[in-house]
Amino acid sequence: MxxxxxxxxxxxxxxxxxxxxxxxxxxxxQDTQARAGRSNVMVNKQSNNDPIYPLYGRQxxxxxxxxxxxxxxxxxxxxxxxAGEATNTTTLNxxxxxxxxxxxxxxQLWFNxxxxxxxxxxxxxxxxxxxxxxxxxxxxxxxxxxxxMDITWYPGDDYQLVDQTIQSSVSAAVWPNLSQLAGISYLxxxxxxxxxxxxxxxxxNATLVGKKIFSLQEIQDGWTVADLANxxxxxxxxxxxxxxxxxxxxxxxxxxxxDRLADGSWQAGTNINIASFKQxxxxxxxxxxxxxxxxxxFLQTEKQIFDNVSEILETCNGxxxxxxxxxELRIQKKQEQLNLPSSSIFTKDEIVGEIGLTLPTKTxxxxxxxxxxxxxxxxxxxDLVIFQSDPFTLEDNGSVLEAQEDxxxxxxxxxxxxxxxxMANISRDQYQVALTVAHVGLLLKSGDIIEIxxxxxxxxxxAGQTQKYWRVQELVLTEDNTVEITAxxxxxxxxx
Length: 496
Hints:
Layout: H1 3-9, E1 12-16, H2 22-26, H3 32-39, E2 45-46, E3 55-56, E4 58-62, E5 64-71, E6 91-100, E7 103-111, E8 114-118, E9 124-127, E10 133-136, E11 148-154, H4 164-170, E12 184-192, E13 204-211, H5 241-250, H6 274-290, E14 297-298, H7 305-313, E15 318-323, E16 326-331, E17 345-347, E18 351-358, E19 368-375, E20 381-388, H8 390-395, E21 402-406, H9 413-428, E22 432-437, E23 449-453, E24 468-477, E25 483-489
Parallel strand pairs: 2-5, 17-23, 19-21
Antiparallel strand pairs: 1-15, 3-14, 4-13, 5-6, 6-12, 7-8, 7-13, 9-10, 10-11, 11-12, 15-16, 18-22, 19-20, 22-25, 23-24, 24-25
């Protein structure tokens, strides 16, 4: 076997958001771009060329006012009718672009911090010929009661038609038939100019159930769109991170455009190891004692693909590998029983040269971690949870060793709490080992668990020794065809 052929067998980490990589975590800079995106999630921007983001799971978001026009409600804008006579411009017409379509549903509509329509209370919606849904039965008793004339929500079908209510209110010349906003979920609002608005536009928010995506549960290698007849696209709150990552990677609209043939058509397994993603999907459900990992949030499409992939992986202790020409997804998880093959157990005699061992230091240890997120239980406002350990601080001679994590796609305080608690606990036990082994190391992949038995360190299975397990982080093929392994402590008690 040639060196080039051997090299292809190696699993290289493409993206790995390891929670145990505490040196990176402790020194991670604030992601100001991500925070700005999260903090402004409910703000209405005024633009007709702003990026439209894909939304996964459930989130309360504002949108972009792509169109604002006053009219008399009968096709005359700017207070002038067809005869040149002044008209009473009492109608405000707005188009609010929300997110990439097609999405699943609208659950709530907010004016500022007031819910004006709620599907779970008495709100209903009627499907229109334009493929929009007219919202009905608005909440009574709000300060905006009586100001709403017509509001239509569009889920973002590629074949949706122009909103005829807005068109008839401002005329087809102002809002023509080509204004379909195909592939964009949006709100069309027709409001009565009223003192109820206090002389200014409120901020319009909607709680939306995000993008319809493929379910990996059924997908098989080689499937094309024609094979999806019995496998419905799925949409819902709390989407599985594996499904979300797959959708992002295969998207040729805003993602990486993987699993595509030369003609651009989708075929499962072209660039992605489907089996690994399906297993990761199962692992995401089983994590946290079957409480699971979930994605709720949007991706900023102007950011690097690497950064967006990292944000998804951060929701599930995931890592993305590139193995034998395909991408694999693996979830860092608890393994109750380690029945390791002999190829994953390395004795002193099988190790080439010395072992390098790096102990936790002040730059890697943590005794306080703050997690920032949008809290669904608190009207989707910015919130934080804090892990802080007095015993850890005492061990660190009173020094506060802290890190701050910004979870842009998690809206559940319990998940954030589990992740930051794990981060702090692992940082206290985060030994790193470097060793060189023969070509048997080529059988390993990043993320695998290995055992090292070495008398000099007291590691082994004999009386008085400690069994030491490690998680592989990096594999490097050397010039002499040995394999350099970098690994970190594996402690099943600290895994989620």
